[in-house]
Amino acid sequence: MPTPPSEFRYPCEQCGASLTFSPGEQSLKCPYCGHSQQIGPGAARAPARSKREGADGDRELLRDPATGRALQWDAGRKVPQLSEVPLESGLRLDASSDLTQEMRMLSCPNCGAKFDLSSDQHATKCPFCATPVATDTGSTRQIKPQGIVPFVVTEDQARAALDDWLGRLWFAPSGLVEYARKGRRMAGVYSPFWTFDAETASEYTGARGDWYYETRWVTQVVDGKQRRVQQQVRKTRWTSVRGRVGRAFNDVLVLASTALPRRITDALTPWDLSHLRPYNTQYLQGFEAEGYTIPLADGHDVARQEMAAVIAMDVRRDIGGDEQRINQLRTAHSNETFKHILLPVWSAAYKYNGKSFRFVVNGQSGRVQGERPWSVWKISAAIIAALIALAIFLYVAQESGYIEFSANGFSADSGYTIQGY
Ligand SMILES: [Zn+2]
Ligand SMILES: [Zn+2]
Predict the structure, then answer these.
(1) Global pTM?
(2) Alpha-carbon distance 129 to 137, whole Å?
């Protein structure tokens, strides 16, 4: 394994060993002598649990109307010390730009995850798919991270959360649960994301539908007699409308890696981005840093789609009424900026019976998500147990005279023999 460049190593003042970042505290700790050194001013706060702010403050979130995913935090919660980068300068990056840096990367031959070699610790197995990582892809020019949310959840807490989650899974193979529980190490990975800001102004034409009811007399046949009855029929009155809506998007979050399926990472939301700090390699000590594999332009496309879904929701609200039609919608984006940020994820991947299972824990909130393992044996056993219980119930019920099986129905002697055979 190559020695990391000296600028990325933080030797212990007391014994010279490499310090590691200690989750939940604003400090680096020596794993050998216990000495700790502060990183910058102030302590890292754990995510607030109140309704108004923090990782559980769902009210502050804007959700994608289609999927329910959290899209962003309220624009009032911006981190002042973090600078946004104009989108234009990110999209036409040249080698001389100070937005970028040369990075040496390791990549996973199976899932394609890339890992920054400048952090001082490297797993020999990919933390996302348990495949040995060997390929040194040489150096690539990457956009530098502007911000990072340091780990708040410790490895022990992450494992406890995972244990709890596994324990609540019915029909998970016991072997896998045991295997996962046996003090396996989890890998702390800073995963790459893009965030986008934009001011949008949209013009639309469409129609507003208002419901009204008409009373009709209809002829119905009741008890063999014809009768006239009143019926309420709902109708919609459409009026054409046009209008404008505007919205300032703040920190629309897009995953910049393809290593984990989006349904897994989406389930880790929300992230409290008000705890972003300026990027500092000290936070990486003892952790893996993943490089982005989804380029800025592609991430921007995803963000535009998410914004479009929210704008359509705004338009419907603006139209009002009971139903809405949008015929034309044109949106102008301005003041577009982006940030490249790293978010903390505890990851565990197990190869079990030739299949890999992946589990991730949000390193800020402790939320767990993973691939749901099923045990064929446990499911079969449960079905057999249910059938036996049903058979006993039917037997007891028949003995006590609650049900009687008729001759042409379900009976022990007739079985399933088919006439004529
Ligand atoms: Zn030390
Ligand atoms: Zn992998």
Answers:
(1) 0.74
(2) 19
